[in-house]
C-alpha cells in the first residue's frame, strides 16, 4: 500500500495473545490505520511482543491496559483478551471514548454484551467483533451471486464446521480450556464462526429453537471441548442448520448451504487457503444423470481476488467507520453490534441446551 493518510486511526492493543500478532500486522497493512500503542500486564511482556513482531520503535509500550486507555492519542483499541475480561475492559475503553474492536466470543453471555454495547452507544464509539471472514470480498461475492439474486432459491439446509486438533499441552494449559478465563471453550472460540455462518445465511434472522446434540465433550472444569447443535427455523422446520465445533478433529472450516434451487460449498470459509484469493463452488439445477451414473451438471467455481488479507480488510472497515465518526460527527454503525448481539444470543442458546442435557431452547 501507499503512504498512510496524514491522520490515520491510531490503534492501541491491550493484551498480547497470539492472535494479536496477526491483527498488529493487519493494522499496519490497512491504508487508514497505524499501530500506536501496545499494553500488557507487564512492561516486559509488552516489550517482548514488540520485539518478536518487529514493531516500530515509535510505538508506545505500556505495562498496563489502563495506560493504553489513558493515552489521549489512542483512537481505538483492539482487545484479544480472555473472554472473562471483556466486560470490564470494553466498558472502560468506551468510557474513555476509545472505539472497540474485540475478539470473539464478545462476552460470556448476552447480558454482559448488552452492557458493553450500551457503554459504546452512550459514548458514541464504534463496536465490532473480530469475525474476519465477514470482511473478505469472497463473502460479499457469495451474497451478491447467490442470495441477492435468489439463485439458490429458499435456503432450507446449512451445515458448518470449525474444528482443530490441539495438543495435550493446549488441553492442559490454554486459556480457552480454563473455566475462569474462557468458560465457553470450543463453542465460543471456534463455534462462534459456525453460528455466525448460520445467521449470515439466513440474513441474520433468529431461529425458532436450538438443540445441542448429545455428543458434547467437556473437560474436568466443565468447559466444552467439542459439541454439535441443531438450529431450526419455523415449526415444522423450514430451515435446519447443523454446526459442529471441536478441539479433537483435524482442521476443518466447512460451509454448505442448500436451497430449493441449488447449493453452495466451501472448505475454508473462516480462513482462506491463501491470502490473495479465495474461491467457492455452487451448483444450480443439479439432478442425477440418466441411469443414475453421474450428475447432469458440475459445480461452478468462482475465484475472488483480495488486495489485502481479510484481517486488514476488517481493520480498514472499522477504521473507516471511526474516521467518519471523528470527522463528520456521524453515529456508529449499528450493523456490527447487531451481528454480534445475535451471534451471542445464538451461542447462549446452544450453551443453555448443553447445560440442560441437550433439551430444546426456544427463542
From TrEMBL:
Domain Gfo/Idh/MocA-like oxidoreductase N-terminal: 9-128
Pfam family, one: GFO_IDH_MocA
Annotated ranges, domain GFO/IDH/MocA-like oxidoreductase: 146-264
Molecular function GO terms recorded: nucleotide binding
Family: Belongs to the Gfo/Idh/MocA family.
Descriptive protein name: Uncharacterized oxidoreductase At4g09670-like
